[in-house]
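Give me the fold.
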Amino acid sequence: FSQIIEHKYPEYQKAFVVDLQNRFEVKKDALQSAIRRVALVAPGENQRIRIEVSNEQFVVNTTSRDTGDAKENLDDYHFEGIETGVSFSFRYMLSILDVVDSEKVVINLGTSRDPLMIYNQANQENEEITFLLMPLRS
């Protein structure tokens, strides 16, 4: 059974922001491992974790009244831009990283309210895959 929807399809292209001022590149496995460790104490209701990135540090962290705090520092990354941070659901980020087939990921982000644009590290121009992850409000 199927039903025809008679509404306009949402303008999803507006969500794909291309002019985000911050860009970082990090090893996929290192980011996945850090997120998984921090996620052990992430609040259950929204599974919120936060990344904070600058030229000096890359931190994955979370805080929960029930289970405490967790913080992981990543050393091997490349960052261009101004210091920023963003909160998101760790489950959505891990589901993206699980399907990325490159050693490194490139993440573009703006403010804490802008979406994260996540790319695989493509060998050829037409092999790039774009993922969009919406932030959680802090």
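The mean pLDDT is 89.
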